[in-house]
Amino acid sequence: MAQTHLFVDTNVFLEFYSSTKESLGQLKDLSEHLTADGICLHLPEQVLDELWRNRETRLKTAADNFKKESHPGGIPQHMLEYPQASEYRTAVEAATRARNAMINQAATDASNNALPADIVLQDLIDKAELYLDDEQIFVRAVKRMQKGSPPGKPDSVGDQYNWEVLLSRVPDGDLHIVSNDGDYVSALNTGRPHPSLEVEWKQSKNGKLHVYKGVKPFLDRYLADAEEARGQPAAEPAASPPEPVQAHGVMLEVAAAATPVTAPSAEKEAAIEALVTSPTFRATHEAIAKLEQLRPTINRTEAERLLEAAIDNSQIALIASDDDVYAFFSALLEEHLDIDAGLWNAAAEVFGLSTDDSDNFHP
């Protein structure tokens, strides 16, 4: 398996200093895979500058919010005589002391760069491919900002600079981006990259962009790919899928409709079953290739079965952004607006399709 190239945005690293939803175990797992034949983490110095610049603010906000959390100390009058009332007061007092001790210890460790997050991030930095600031790249980034080109905000050059570094330094091929602020994703289809960045990367690096909202979804996809590469022989090259097109109304990207065919029920049932029960990414791609030709014959019940599989089967969901998988299911969603609205919206979310205005196009 070829080395996988990864960029993690500053906002993702900062989450590990403040969010209660992110586990440092994710970063530790990532660090274990930063090897010559595993993952290469590309790290512009700009990312580190932003990280250290915003770290203390994140820590202070997290500590302040934690301190504001109130312990339910008031015991109702009719419970005061229970023997557990004294135990309860003691537990609340102990919890308050423990919280204050943690806040004080964290402040000391933060000053010494000794927080658990500091230690794990330093390990990542030591293993990453670090790119020092480059004046020529910065000039290109400023021009990019002035033109209003993505990624990033119009009043900041940081994201534009990081993107120009990636264009300049990452080898040709695919790039995986982990970011949670939306700068790198499509405004309409949030499971896919920003269309202009996708085109630019393909033209400049002859590869694809893949985007994720967190470290865990990326690792899940990476580990599944690695497992399949170890357990399966190389697949025959698949036929190139049709170029995605911008659809109107529901704002979907769909492949061109196949020529209508009449499929024997046994053949169609076998193809559907193969996709629903797909055990590997390779099997998913093979099943999609067969079903794409049969798509015009798929009825509502069959469409619901396939969409449920896209939600439940990780061998479909983890490659939802792959061109053939995305094109097939987005077309299926557009062609079957009559299915259950809850199922439609759940499947649309898997493929990063906007459901904010679903009432406008769903019966």
Structural class: alpha/beta
Strand line-up in the sheet with most strands: 3-2-1-4-5
Ranges where pLDDT stays below 50 over 5 or more residues in a row are 233-262, 357-363
- Structurally, the number of domains stands at 2
Task: Categorize the overall geometry.
Answer: globular
Task: List how many beta strands DSSP finds.
Answer: 7
Q: Compute the average pLDDT.
A: 84
Gap between N and C termini = 46 Å
Number of helices: 15
Biggest sheet character: 5 strands, parallel
* Gyration radius over CA: 25 Å
Strand content: 5-15%
Helix content: 55-70%
| SSE pattern | EHHEHHHEHHEHEHEEHHHHHH
Describe it:
The chain is an alpha/beta fold and 363 residues long. It has 2 domains: 214 residues, no CATH class; 116 residues, no CATH class. Helix content is 55%, strand content 7%. The chain contains 15 helices and 7 strands. The strands form 2 sheets. Strands 3-2-1-4-5 form a 5-stranded parallel β-sheet, with helices on both faces. Strands 6-7 form a two-stranded antiparallel sheet. Helix 8 links the parallel strand 4 and strand 5. Helix 2 packs parallel to helix 5 and helix 6 crosses helix 7. The longest helix has 28 residues. It is globular and about 70 Å long. The C terminus is likely disordered.
